[in-house]
Specification:
Blueprint: H1 3-11, H2 28-31, E1 36-39, H3 47-59, E2 61-62, E3 71-72, E4 76-79, H4 85-90, H5 96-102, H6 117-133, E5 137-141, H7 143-151, H8 157-175, E6 180-183, H9 210-216, H10 218-236
Parallel strand pairs: 1-4, 5-6
Antiparallel strand pairs: 2-3
Helix pairs in contact: 6-8, 6-10, 7-9, 9-10
Length: 241
């Protein structure tokens, strides 16, 4: 968002703050008073807006756009970004004081290609979402489809997976007669070549058999895979949790 729109969104504005601002408007900070405000992609925020957010965190006050009266801010901030903020700070694109203010409890979420065990869970979740909105129900994915989805590197991470599932479900619906659908590789158009599948076989277990997925469903196969991963982690840590 342009800075003036982002400032209005966060801090609100007073009448006459800009053209067509005929009445006062609450910002997200005021709406979230006493609660939590999530700032997504904070690494893309301009330096001038970073300064204003830093002031909120330091002084617990702000002024609405076009106003002069300070407003107290009792808000917990949760922020996310796809950027490496350590590098952004080193290159002068992100304020070091703001980074330290935000980096109290960091949570690193690896890209989807590094946590392939989540793909089955996410497919199941997105299919359930799709099925609640439409009469035609997608029951499962074919074994060769699951193989393709597990091999793919998902540069767009979870959002790309969700869009791919939704698109494939729509295509399957247009090409299939009957109330029950099954997703096939031809229903997907992925943006890059699939990676070779690096299955973690061990004494504890292995990736679920695609035929079993086709027969028993995604949820059962996912449960089996999770059990194998947990058991292997248990053994690698000397049978200590």
């Amino acid at each position: 968002l342009p800075d003036n729109l982002l400032e209005s969104e966060l801090f609100g504005h007073v009448p006459g703050a800009y053209t067509d601002a005929k009445s006062a408007r609450k910002g997200r900070l005021e709406a979230a008073d006493g609660g939590t405000l999530f700032l997504d992609e904070i690494g893309d925020m301009s330096m001038s807006m970073q300064v204003k957010v830093l002031r909120v965190l330091q002084e617990k006050t702000y002024e609405p756009l076009g106003g002069v009266r300070s407003v107290n801010a009792d808000v917990r901030i949760v922020a996310a970004t796809h950027r490496d903020l350590d590098k952004e700070v080193a290159q002068g694109r992100f304020l070091k004081p703001l980074f330290y203010r935000l980096n109290i409890f960091p949570i690193d979420v690896p890209p989807l290609r590094e946590r392939k065990e989540d793909i089955c869970l996410l497919i199941n979740h997105f299919l359930e979402k799709f099925n609640t909105k439409r009469e035609n129900k997608v029951m499962n994915v074919s074994p060769d489809t699951l193989d393709v989805l597990l091999r793919y590197n998902w540069p767009g991470n979870v959002r790309e997976l969700e869009h791919a599932i939704n698109r494939a479900a729509v295509i399957a619906k247009s090409q299939t007669r009957g109330p029950y659908l099954r997703l096939k590789p031809s229903h997907f158009q992925l943006t890059s070549e699939p990676l070779s599948l690096q299955s973690t076989t061990s004494e504890a277990g292995q990736l679920p058999d695609n035929k079993k997925i086709a027969n028993e469903g995604l949820r059962e196969a996912t449960n089996e895979f999770q059990a194998a991963v947990i058991t292997q982690a248990y053994k690698e840590n000397g049978n200590n949790w």
